[in-house]
Write a structure and sequence with these properties.
Low-confidence stretches: 139-145
Number of domains: 3
Structural class: alpha+beta
Number of helices: 8
Number of strands: 6
Radius of gyration: 26 Å
Strand order of the largest sheet: 1-2-3-4-5-6
Shape: elongated
Length: 274
């Protein structure tokens, strides 16, 4: 690599990282202020608030990287121009195209780092942050409805009253319909735990099977229930679409589309990441 490219890359990278660090400190300060109001709920203490903010830093860095690259590069070029270094490079025969090529190499490196950060670091860190906060506050995953979480899986509608931070389920009801949209059966279970690859072990089951003229009730201590519902889908409750990886966004959007549910929010997040 030519000397001028190394020099430009070093100056631009240092400025970008400095701007990114400044943004992260600023946003972390406001995040801590917003999180302090939760201190004292259950076992949630100040150290947990700081840990929550730290775990969310990769997601913040992913969001701030583009603007940090823009401002950092402009700052580096302004500094070089103020010291007449760009003038010296141009007089030495450096063309505008060559200068831009050097900057595009820096951009490519940071684009790759941003992709890796958004796909492999930020999503699990975000999930861990929310799991930790839910656990320490003694809360479960929040749902939009009083009746809990509702999920459609082919011809079944699943209602879960409580989703624990480790994705175990409490208070499960499964309503199964036939092709004519008539209710076939209702399964109620006290708890459920995921079994690899595509099953759930339900406990304390009461299964009501409906026919044309009667209803049959059967009680079982345990049963294996197979469903497309899995911990990755439940994790969506704790990670916003903007912080999810492309892989999880694609999988969850496909799940919603297969069940004829609205996918607009996740489609927008997917293409925004692209």
């Amino acid at each position: 690599m030519k000397v001028y490219r190394r020099y430009l890359g070093r100056e631009a990278s240092a400025a970008i990282l400095l701007v990114l660090l400044a943004f992260l400190v600023l946003f972390s300060f406001f995040d801590v202020l917003a999180e302090v109001k939760n201190v004292g709920q259950g076992g949630y203490k100040l150290r947990h608030a700081f840990a929550f903010v730290l775990l969310r830093l990769p997601g913040r860095a992913y969001e701030l990287m583009p603007i940090a690259v823009l401002i950092g590069t402009l700052y580096a070029l302004t500094t070089l121009a103020r010291h007449s270094e760009i003038t010296v490079l141009r007089v030495s025969g450096l063309s505008t195209i060559a200068l831009l090529n050097g900057l595009f190499l820096v951009a490519a490196v940071f684009a790759g780092l941003t992709f890796l950060l958004g796909e492999y670091v930020a999503p699990p860190a975000e999930k861990a942050a929310h799991q930790m906060r839910l656990k320490e506050r003694g809360r479960m995953v929040g749902q939009d409805l009083r009746s809990g979480l509702w999920v459609k899986d082919e011809r079944s509608f699943i209602n879960v009253r409580v989703v624990l931070p480790d994705t175990r389920l409490r208070g499960i009801r499964i309503y199964t319909f036939d092709e004519q949209a008539k209710l076939n059966s209702v399964i109620e279970a006290a708890a459920g735990e995921h079994v690899v690859p595509d099953g759930w072990r339900l406990t304390e089951i009461v299964q009501t099977t409906l026919s044309s003229d009667r209803a049959e009730v059967q009680r079982m201590p345990e049963m294996l229930w197979r469903s497309a519902l899995n911990p990755d889908i439940l994790a969506v409750l704790m990670v916003s679409p903007e912080r999810m990886s492309l892989r999880h966004l694609s999988a969850y959007t496909k799940h919603l589309a297969d069940n004829r549910q609205t996918t607009n929010r996740y489609d927008i997040a997917f293409w925004k990441k692209i």
